[in-house]
Amino acid sequence: MRISIRLKFIILIFLLLTIVTLLIFYFTLNRVREALSHEIKLQGELIGRMIALNAEDPLITNDDLYLATIVADASKNEGVIYAFITDREGIIRAHNDVRWIGKNVNDYKFPGNVYRVEYPILLAGKKEIGKVYIGLDIGRIESTTQKIQLILITIASIGLFLGIIGAVILSSFMSRPIKQLVYGVQQIAKGKYDVRIKIKSRDEIGELTEAFNNMAKSLKEKEQIKDAFRRYVSHQVAEEIFKDPDKYVNLLKGTRKKVTVLFADVRKFTPLSEKLPPEQVVALLNELLSAMTNVVFRYEGTIDKFIGDCLMAVYGAPIEHPDDQNRAVMSAVDIQKEIQKINERRKRLGQPTMSIGIGINSGEAVVGNIGSQERLDYTVIGDTVNLASRLQEVAGGGEIVISERVFNEINVPFTFQGPYLIKVKGKENPVRIYKLIAEQSPPQNST
Predict the structure, then answer these.
(1) pTM
(2) 336, β-bridge pairs
(3) CA–CA separation, 299 vs 329, rounded Å?
(4) How far apart are CA 335 and CA 412, in angstroms?
(5) Digit-coded pLDDT (tens) for 251-282
(6) Strands (DSSP E) found in 88-163
(7) Domains along the chain?
(8) Could you tell me if 343 and 295 are in contact, meaning their C-beta atoms sit under 8 angstroms apart?
(9) Furthest C-alpha separation in the chain
(10) Per-residue pLDDT tens for 158-213?
């Protein structure tokens, strides 16, 4: 069953008012009871002390008539149920009920629902020669609290009634802009990003409405950014971009920055593809490219493009890492390992094996969306990219070739051969390259 926010708000206000009223009700009654109990206690102690002071001499001289007068006067106080005096043997010498005079206090039946006070009668303030017994009615506590309960119930009922009326009015005032926000969200869900809601107040609801309008205004641009990036980068990188898409808008428009570019190409794939059925060619190529893509995403690189059986990956755009060059080299090593696993499986099935040549270069490049109005590709261009492509062409199957700049700036646990001077297309002077040959073994502890 659907419950409107207006009804929920009314119920919430009613519950809060009820809880507050009950708490006030409870603590007020407790405070009244405590105050009345304290008052009765003080009254009993005061009466008992006055009787004890006046009864000292008459009790020694056996002046029972004076003792009776003291007890009679004490019984006239409000709330006194009984009052009597005993001697040191516990014999009742004076009582407001004469039937008990002369009897032992141990035989006396104290009435219930009274506050009992026992006060000693001391000779010269030291030796006990008797006691004063006072019984005060505590029923007045209940009668007083019942009157207060009636007053509190009346006030609480009026307060709850007014609170519910106020909650209805306030909830109606709040629910209208919320309904408008719901309408706006529904329009956004339909892809209508031009929807705007009129701001009618300058409170939290007004701030929420303004925030919604700002969201609708920027949502289309953010969606475009998401579409541009989610096909090229790993889930982790995409989430990082989505946290602050505005930060990466300039990357779409074009910017120059340092990147590391990796090219990985399948060797002798064209002759093999001519011997296989088309569906097997597509399945094999998808398997190889998927394995390489997973590795690139593992190190938070970006897939720039697939060029037939060649993959181009970029590290440092759109997300930069301080160790992008290390990530590129580690990716190349893991790609070769993945290809080895695929080859082992293909050997068991009697199928031909594959090999990958990888080239890596680092440097400045232009980054952005390049193409026509109908089709744009997020890519990097420049001499850095061209040299990485040439290094890939130099690499043999299973080899990883890196430029001198990459070699000088990486910190990875691998052994390299070189430098070698090679002549590449587009360069007047030979370039220095290095080949990764092995993973270094950890040092052995000496014994």
Answers:
(1) 0.50
(2) none
(3) 10
(4) 16
(5) 666 788 899 999 999 988 888 888 888 888 88
(6) 92-95, 114-123, 127-137
(7) 5-141 (3.30.450.20), 236-439 (3.30.70.1230)
(8) no
(9) 139
(10) 877 787 787 777 777 766 777 777 777 777 777 776 777 777 777 767 777 778 77
